[in-house]
Amino acid sequence: MQNRTTKAPELLPLGRDGIVLRLALRPDPGATAGVQALRAALEAADLPGVNEIAPALASVLVRFDPARTTRDDLATGLRALVAGRDWCAADMPPPARRWTIPAAFGGSAGPQLSETAGLAGLDETRAVAELTATPLRVLAIGFAPGQPYLGLLPEHWDFPRQPELTPTVPAGALCAAVRQIVLFANPSTTGWRQVGLTGFRPFKADRAQPFALRPGDELRLSAVPDGEMQDLARNDPDGLGGARCEVLA
What we know:
Protein name: Allophanate hydrolase subunit 1
Keywords: ATP-binding, Hydrolase, Nucleotide-binding
GO molecular function: ATP binding; hydrolase activity
Low-confidence stretches: none
Domain Carboxyltransferase: 9-213
CATH architecture of the largest domain: Beta Barrel
InterPro entries: CT_C_D, Cyclophilin-like_dom_sf, PxpB
Number of domains: 2
Number of strands: 14
Oligomer: single chain
Strand order of the largest sheet: 5-12-9-10-7-6-13
CATH class of the largest domain: Mainly Beta
Distance between the termini: 36 Å
């Protein structure tokens, strides 16, 4: 299988209750947009027995209830749904929700901003301008509960993760690599470079909606001073750090 394909997604079994629809062997912009288009089509189709649709960067996992459908029946429905379309040429579907999240950049909030900006061929001011001007999409959620992988940034942000791990970044950290931003749900070791910090917690168990973000959501970062970001975090018991969510559809 080549990385880009004009054929229907490859269907692969996963465990006793999953089917993976794979568009490519590794992420690229076409596959990333295609995954989101496929996710939207699967959600709209509401196939019998499906209980979870989980997009990754180059594939979509569909989980089903074996008491309600069989793998073969679901696979038949999936093949009919995806046939006849070049999913890697699909446009990114419009978002159903748009988040605006206050974030502080540089200094103690983003100790690797200067290094990261240099890798993108920018100074710090221009890097922050691009980070806040780019409408990011929730491409995948994983690694930790509710933790989003956001993208895509412009092509000059396509640099690798750092060769050595940062021992710990805090919850709410914004870290960059490979044209993406990870908004960390918990303190974590990482190879991604920290450029900013938010008071936004993607997962909070005692919140009315513990998982704040959904795949396909649009997210825009709004630059604020570090002190203001800290105040927003302290004064928001829901752990949203002053974020606003606009329902678009």
